[in-house]
């Protein structure tokens, strides 16, 4: 009994001290494992300023201290649902809009991805990093830079690996090598800048200038590559026209065109011969996952993602 009273007294003193100071961190909950829920509710560092759900109180209060493993399992499933929802939203709304913007501005998807898509993904990181640095205690900005580098590592490892498992593709070698070189240089520059624990104005401007140089190299390479392709296409067209004239292919082409016109008059167009889509068929296509790849040709991960989707 005296031990219980002593523990309650120490806990009360700790909670009173937590009101008077903001130096107590949320990770100190290990010292009060018997009353973790009260610690999570009363410690300012455990309170979340963003989001609608406080996951700490959900695990330690709603689920309980005895079932922490169950709470973490539920949160892992919820994280998977959020990832899938974000992917479906991006696939249905964000990516088509990005393709339209790239088509209107006559940009390649590679340039649109590293400019508009990068700005869209990086804008929240900018404001969250500024907020984390502004609210840092004692100049400790490890959370801000840890989040930035962690996001970069996550994108280059988990995201790229998952895409390769779900939808295998062939990458373009030169743009990929260019992006990897700039990424390595930027990461090494960040290491050099933060080695002494200080970031100067020249170093900050250097990172901005590095990104501007990256955009210049990217856009310049795009226009050079397009000019080379145009010259090759023009040369191939000239060679084809010369070969057609020398072998009399122009007349054969005209006869083929006339035959194709007569065939198109006899055989109706597929769009005209297709029956009207019924409500049941439209409902079925709305609920089933849509993809251009047949079900038998998909791998296991792609099938699971399609079913959950």
TrEMBL record:
One of its GO terms (molecular function) is calcium:sodium antiporter activity. Keywords: Antiport, Calcium, Calcium transport, Ion transport, Membrane, Transmembrane, Transmembrane helix, Transport. The keyword Transport applies. It holds the Pfam family Na_Ca_ex. Its main location: membrane. Residues 78-219 form the Sodium/calcium exchanger membrane region domain. The chain crosses the membrane at residues 67-90, 111-133, 145-169, 176-194, 200-224. InterPro entries: CaCA_antiporter, NaCa_Exmemb, NCX_ion-bd_dom_sf. One of its GO terms (biological process) is intracellular calcium ion homeostasis. GO terms for cellular component: membrane. It is a multi-pass membrane protein. It is found in: Membrane. This is Sodium/calcium exchanger membrane region domain-containing protein.
